[in-house]
Structure formats: structure tokens, C-alpha cells
Amino acid sequence: MAGITAYGFWRELINKLNDMNTNNNSYTIIYASLMVVIVAFLLAFVSSSLKPTQDENVAIDKKKQILAALNIRGLDSKDAITAKYNEVVEADMVVKADGSVLKDGKGKDKDGFKVENKALSPENLPVYLCKVDNEVKYVVPMTGRGLWGGLWGYIAVNADLKTVYGAFLSHESETAGLGAIIAEEKFQDQFKGKQILADTTSQEVALTVVKHGKVEPGKENYQVDGVTGATLTSVGVSCLFSTSPSPRASSFSRIPSSALKHKYPDIPTIKPTNFILHSLNYY
User: Fold this and answer.
1) What is the CA radius of gyration of the chain?
2) How far apart are CA 224 and CA 238, in angstroms?
């Protein structure tokens, strides 16, 4: 067998199979096992060959979602998405819940961008530092759960860390025509200009999604109209932003100005504020 080629090995094996009694149980077992090995090998080869393309598509989709949170939509080609992302995203930091910077993200796409949703934690929080029309914006990821499956998205806030600039939301398996509406631009546009806090003296996140048609007078600045017939999905979206005692609760952290000024030393000093860095799953 020494020095035998792969072709020679398979050729010899096939010849032995041809010489066997096809009505014998041993033939059936060997033949079936051989087919399983061949198919497994081909599947592994195809998967390995396609992985670079799959990884690239996942990265492009992630960039498209981040851009959507920055109200930059309608880009379909990979080149257009990549070019716009490189234009507006200046760094992808990784910070801890106390605001300390673990990675400065200056290499772009090598730090925060590499953090997957399942790896998000209070000790591992991506923050994308962006500039849109020469104005500083911050984008952070969110994860949670709806009625039937996971929810995720990104929220972009202005440099004041108090006003929502834009939002992107998506879902795993919400009901079409009901909960799935959260993935539509019309629903997401409601978050533009909303306040994260109820007022300048509050340290509690007030931004929330309420039952459809139940936005309270005087609270329009931080309440978003929910989806008709999709109460649990709306609650799930609300839990992406606000604290709740339920098992679906999100966790919120504070980001001090020191974590922001390392990149933009010219921005005004901002006192630590209750700010959405990450919605932590409890599943």
C-alpha cells in the first residue's frame, strides 16, 4: 500500500466491490458506508469552498444594517455598501460596561465588527463611531427576543447621547404581516428624533414601544407606537431599549465621556449618562 495514490486506492476498492456478491449483506453495508463517506467528503469540500463567500456576504449584510441605522438605505451592490460604510464609520471600539476601552477600533472591522451577537456581554460591547454629514453619531448593537424567536438590530444616537438618530431592527421568525412589520422602514422611522431619557434630570431610559394607538400625551418624545396585533413582538422591541423586571429584561450600561473623547477630543465633555450599549439575553 506504500506509495499508492488516492486514485489507485479508490480504483482498487471499486474493483473489490465489483468482485463481491451483490446479494451479500457485507456488500450492502460496505457500499452504503462508502457512499456516506463520499457524500460527507463532497459536502465538506463544498462548504469549505463556499465559506469565504459566505463570510463576505455576512459582513456585507452587517455593514448594510449598520448603515440602515444611520438612515443610509437603498444600497444594493457590495461595492456601494462597502464604500459608504468605509466613508461614515471611523472606528469600531470594544468597551466594557464601565466605559473603559478594551479596543480602540482604529483598524476598523478588526475589533467591534468581529464581535458576534452571541459574544455580546457587559465586558465585550461594540460601539461604532461614525460621522454623517460631518456630525458624530454612535451606533450600538441590540439583541433580544420576540414572540417566536430572536430580535436584533442597531440604534444610532447623536453626539449628545440622548437623541436617537436612527434604528434598524430585524427578526428571526415573527409573524408575517404582524410582528414582522418591525423590520419595515416605516416602523423603524418612528424612532428618529426620539429621546432616550424622559428629561434632562432623569437617569432612567424612557425610550419604549407601547401598544398600538396608546402613545400618551406629553410622552410622544420617547414613546413609539407599536404594531397592531403584535403585542408580544412590540414588548420584545421595547425590551431592547428599556429596563424590565421580567426574564426578557435588557441590561443597560453607562458610557462615560472618557470612552468617547479618545477618538474625538474636540467634542464637549458629557457627563456619564444611562445609555444603551447592549441588550443582554437571559436565555
Assistant:
1) 25
2) 9
The predicted pLDDT at position 202 comes to: 66
How high is the pLDDT of residue 200? 67
Neighbouring C-alpha atoms within 13 Å toward the C-beta of 68: 23
Please identify which residue in the block is written with the cell numbers 400618551: 216
Give the Cβ contact number of residue 65 at 10 Å: 17
SS (H, E, C) the chain: CCCCCHHHHHHHHHHHHHHCCCCCHHHHHHHHHHHHHHHHHHHHHHHHHHHHHHHHHHHHHHHHHHHHHCCCCCCCCHHHHHHHHHHHEEEEEEECCCCCEEECCCCCCCCHHHCCHHHCECCEEEEEEEEECCEEEEEEEEEEECCCCEEEEEEEEECCCCEEEEEEEEECCCCCCCHHHHHCHHHHHHHCCCECECCCCCCCECCEEECCCCCCCCCCCCEEECCCCCHHHHHHHHHHHCCCCCCCCCCCEEECHHHHHCCCCCCCCCCCEEECCCCCCCC
Mean pLDDT split into 10-residue runs, the chain, 283 residues: 62 70 71 81 79 84 96 93 95 80 84 85 85 92 86 90 91 91 94 84 78 89 90 86 39 38 37 32 25
Find, among 283, 60, 63, 282, the residue nearest to 168 by Cα. Answer: 63
Rounded to 5 degrees, φ, ψ at 68 are -60, -40
